[in-house]
């Protein structure tokens, strides 16, 4: 099946592999082959989210994260079609290797039809997992689509490799098989569930709920201003923190185009709320958050779990992993070794200062121009920079500048920012305790989202406090559903989980926190074991070349 000119031509797997080998960004969407090189620099959600989909069937990810209009515009990049189920490659950004295509040399399907393009994680650990009792065998892969480990790297202590194998074996036993038939059935049921959600109107926004939200925001802002004028400064700081805490939820909705479902309208709402009222960049958040939704809980790729040297939710960070998002090595050095040993005790104190880190990330994004400078979002950077100036004028000059002493300024700043800590706890709560194992390229999008995300059970009257983030697993399955409809969606997702056999992680807020602290404590214990191993090795006179 040699490729032929035309948008509807059937393209061979070998030809598509060759395109990727040439550096082309090719993805599969609804049996269509899209080459998005000319669009990637304009993508409002950043280039990394696209790069993690190269060589893969991105149908579910695209449907989940994009509006109907955006999906229709994507068809302009179609270069052909495929026939039958697509077997995913490991994307180049994740270490996948691809063979050049040579049509003149007879490089056709006959030479490639061994389905060896099925990638598995580039680690020798997985060979041992395949042979482990009770483990479901991972598909073998060709040398052309798998990156090989660096043979010169220092071998890890055996207990770390054993731990990795144990986590993968645990997940393969707990979750449905990653074989093609099982995962295709899960994908089919997931798409049928989406049709049912649409039919029940759960994508329709309840604007009266946002009226109530606006009343709450106004109340908190008004109380903050009232106590500022009456010189009850710390109460003013508290209510300002409450105001920011609640605003995050609306910015989150707008970032997912979940309010009006119109890109420019929701983007403007989100930037006004995030930048002008909250001092944070919505563009930075979207660039980071879209990647998080695609490669959830993958230590090398998901920025939402890359918090070295302060937190590590898996022993794999002991390898000084390279972050594909930040394009830097997350060093496991002496400082991180010290911090991680106590991370379960430092978890809440560090999160109290989480908002200050968000300022840093926002400024870095805007100053360095990390967002698109052309395309539909070209104006966002300047609108956000204006918003930052506006925010620091009213907050920095208008509020902090009106306080009588430097001590009052310091306390006001700390209290107003610390009050927002529950948001950071809520976000990390949903993922820190969940799986970080890599089950390969064949795991379906819905199964991966449910395997790496937990929901928090709370009474309905507390929904305003959690802001929809308590339904993170459901949100990861269908990010564009307005948060006020997530509780109604939960019943349908529970039925889906029962039908497919995928466990649905649901904890109370207290139990969820216990799970996270337990996970952090477990990794901290592994740090201590690793340190003891190294000390013992040094005492025995065994030294590494490194």
Summarize the structure.
This protein has 546 residues and is mainly alpha-helical.
Topology:
Layout: H1 13-21, E1 26-29, E2 32-35, H2 37-40, H3 48-51, H4 59-65, H5 68-74, E3 78-81, H6 125-131, H7 158-174, H8 180-199, H9 207-229, H10 233-255, H11 263-277, H12 282-294, E4 322-323, E5 328-329, H13 334-340, H14 343-351, H15 354-367, H16 380-399, H17 406-418, H18 421-432, H19 445-452, E6 455-457, H20 463-466, H21 472-477, H22 486-500, E7 506-508, H23 509-539
Parallel strand pairs: 6-7
Antiparallel strand pairs: 1-2, 2-3, 4-5
Describe the protein in words.
It is a single chain. With 546 residues, the protein is mostly helical. The protein is 53% helix and 4% strand. The chain has helices at residues 13-21, 37-40, 48-51, 59-65, 68-74, 125-131, 158-174, 180-199, 207-229, 233-255, 263-277, 282-294, 334-340, 343-351, 354-367, 380-399, 406-418, 421-432, 445-452, 463-466, 472-477, 486-500, 509-539; strands at 26-29, 32-35, 78-81, 322-323, 328-329, 455-457, 506-508. Helix 8 (180-199) packs antiparallel against helix 22 (486-500), helix 9 runs antiparallel to helix 10 (233-255) and helix 10 runs antiparallel to helix 11. The chain is globular.
């Amino acid at each position: 099946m040699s490729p032929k000119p035309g948008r509807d031509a059937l393209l061979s797997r070998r030809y598509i592999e060759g395109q990727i080998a040439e550096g082309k960004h090719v993805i599969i969407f609804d049996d269509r082959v899209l080459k998005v090189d000319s669009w990637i620099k304009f993508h409002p959600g950043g280039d990394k989210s696209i790069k993690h989909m190269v060589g893969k069937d991105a149908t579910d990810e695209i449907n989940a994260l994009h509006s109907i209009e955006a999906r229709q515009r994507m068809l302009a990049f179609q270069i052909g079609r495929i026939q039958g189920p697509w077997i995913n490659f490991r994307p180049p950004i994740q270490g996948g290797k691809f063979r050049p295509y040579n049509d003149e040399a007879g490089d056709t399907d006959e030479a490639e039809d061994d389905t060896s393009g099925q990638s598995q994680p580039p680690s020798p650990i997985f060979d041992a997992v395949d042979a482990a009792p009770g483990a479901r065998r991972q598909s073998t892969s060709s040398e052309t689509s798998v990156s090989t480990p660096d043979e010169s790297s220092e071998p890890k202590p055996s207990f770390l490799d054993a731990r990795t194998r144990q986590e993968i074996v645990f997940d393969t036993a707990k979750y449905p098989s990653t074989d093609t038939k099982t995962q295709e059935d899960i994908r089919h049921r997931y798409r049928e569930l989406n049709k049912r959600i649409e039919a029940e109107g759960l994508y329709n926004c309840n604007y009266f709920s946002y009226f109530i939200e606006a009343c709450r925001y106004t109340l908190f802002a008004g109380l903050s201003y009232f106590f500022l004028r009456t010189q009850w400064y710390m109460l003013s700081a508290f209510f300002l923190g409450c105001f920011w805490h609640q605003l995050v939820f609306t910015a989150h909705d707008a970032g997912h185009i979940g309010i009006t479902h119109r890109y420019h309208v929701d983007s403007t709402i989100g930037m006004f709320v995030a930048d002008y009222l909250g001092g944070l960049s919505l563009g930075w958040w979207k660039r980071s958050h879209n990647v998080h939704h695609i490669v959830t809980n993958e230590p090398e790729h998901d920025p939402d779990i890359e918090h070295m040297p302060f937190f590590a939710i898996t022993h794999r960070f002991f390898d000084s992993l390279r972050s594909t998002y930040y394009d830097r090595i997350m060093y496991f050095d002496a400082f991180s070794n010290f911090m991680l040993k106590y991370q379960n005790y430092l978890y809440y104190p560090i999160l109290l200062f989480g908002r200050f880190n968000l300022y840093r990330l926002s400024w870095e994004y805007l100053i360095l121009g990390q967002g698109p400078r052309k395309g539909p979002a070209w104006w966002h950077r300047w609108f956000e920079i204006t918003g930052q100036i506006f925010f620091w004028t009213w907050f920095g000059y208008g509020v902090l500048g009106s306080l009588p002493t430097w001590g009052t300024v310091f306390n006001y700043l700390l209290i107003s920012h610390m009050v927002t800590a529950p948001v950071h706890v809520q976000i990390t709560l949903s993922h820190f305790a969940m799986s970080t194992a890599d089950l390969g390229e064949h795991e379906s999008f819905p199964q991966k989202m449910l395997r790496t995300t937990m929901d928090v059970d709370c009474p309905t009257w507390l929904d305003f406090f959690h802001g929809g983030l308590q339904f993170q697993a459901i949100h990861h399955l269908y990010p564009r559903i307005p948060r006020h409809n997530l509780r109604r969606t939960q019943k349908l997702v529970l039925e889906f989980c029962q039908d497919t056999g995928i466990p649905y992680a649901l904890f109370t807020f207290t139990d969820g926190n216990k799970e996270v602290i337990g996970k952090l404590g477990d990794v901290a214990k592994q740090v201590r074991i690793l340190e003891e191993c190294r000390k013992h090795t040094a005492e025995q006179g065994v030294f590494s070349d490194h």
